[in-house]
């Protein structure tokens, strides 16, 4: 999957040159994703190897990272992981660093797990920050190449079968309570893009009064036998 390329005129992504610009640039004029492009030094794969995460999700703290028996390149990676968290804390955020072998899968007929294209949501003004450091990165979908899954006739028919009531307002509440309204399908010929490794992103979420549509994204598919993935999110 190609890294995003703003050159064809994809106006929803803006590339910034610093952390300060990332956190202070307002969303507007259609821009709903900011990307601080970076080429990071250090061996993040070595960090994952020593963590030896074989299933699920493990949240990492400073003590565990500093206790790893790493080479100079591995220690350089740890310094970056810790520094990125410190940067986000300076602006009042609460970042989490996860080592992810696999996310839980949703067995429902209409999936709402993080492997499905979705938008984050909040009840008040908020953004999502994220950075992938190794292996596959998060993936994005352009808003004009996405269709809410509840607006796909076949999916809506499935959801009506699952819904136990008969009132339209109750059905809409059912969709919202189960986050069905936040998941998207890609249209034919859609061009999903990679967030890339090492880039720190700030993306718009769905909240009342947001000046832009939310940024649609998903976690990369888990590949059996591949190492776990380091993801910073806030």
Q: Would you write up a description of this structure?
A:
The protein is of the alpha+beta class and 234 residues long. The chain has a single domain (13-146, 191-233), classed as Jelly Rolls. Helices cover 25% and strands 20% of the residues. The protein contains 6 helices and 12 strands. The chain is globular and about 60 Å long. The model has no long low-confidence stretch (mean pLDDT 89).
Please supply descriptive tags for the structure shown above.
25% helix; Jelly Rolls; 234 residues; seven-stranded mixed beta sheet; three-stranded antiparallel beta sheet; alpha+beta
- Tell me the strand order in the biggest sheet: 1-2-10-5-12-4-3
What is the CA-CA span between the terminal residues? 24 Å
Proportion in β-strands: 15-25%
Q: Specify the overall morphology.
A: globular
Q: Helix proportion of residues, in percent?
A: 10-25%
DSSP summary: helix tally: 6
Main beta sheet:
7 strands, mixed
The CATH architecture name reads: Sandwich
CATH class: Mainly Beta
Measured on Cα atoms, how large is the radius of gyration? 19 Å
Structural domain tally: 1
Helical/strand content category: alpha+beta
């Amino acid at each position: 999957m190609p890294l995003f390329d703003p050159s064809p005129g994809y106006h929803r992504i803006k590339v910034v040159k610093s952390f300060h610009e990332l956190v202070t640039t307002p969303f507007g004029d259609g821009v709903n994703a900011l990307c601080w492009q970076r080429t990071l030094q250090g061996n993040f794969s070595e960090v994952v190897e020593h963590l030896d995460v074989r299933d699920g999700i493990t949240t990492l703290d400073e003590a565990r990272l500093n206790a790893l028996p790493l080479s100079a390149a591995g220690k350089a990676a740890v310094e970056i992981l810790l520094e990125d968290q410190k940067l986000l804390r300076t602006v009042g955020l609460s970042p989490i660093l996860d080592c992810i072998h696999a996310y839980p899968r949703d067995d429902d007929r209409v999936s709402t797990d993080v492997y499905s294209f979705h938008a984050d949501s909040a009840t008040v003004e908020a953004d999502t920050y994220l950075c992938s450091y190794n292996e596959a990165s998060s993936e994005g979908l352009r808003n004009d190449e996405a269709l809410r899954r509840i607006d796909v006739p076949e999916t809506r028919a499935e959801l009506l079968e699952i819904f136990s009531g008969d009132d339209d307002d109750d059905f809409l509440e059912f969709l919202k309570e189960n986050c069905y309204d936040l998941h998207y399908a890609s249209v034919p010929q859609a061009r999903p893009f990679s967030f890339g490794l090492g880039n720190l992103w700030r993306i718009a979420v769905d909240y009342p009064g947001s000046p832009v549509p939310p940024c649609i994204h998903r976690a990369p598919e888990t590949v059996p036998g591949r190492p776990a993935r380091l993801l910073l999110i806030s």
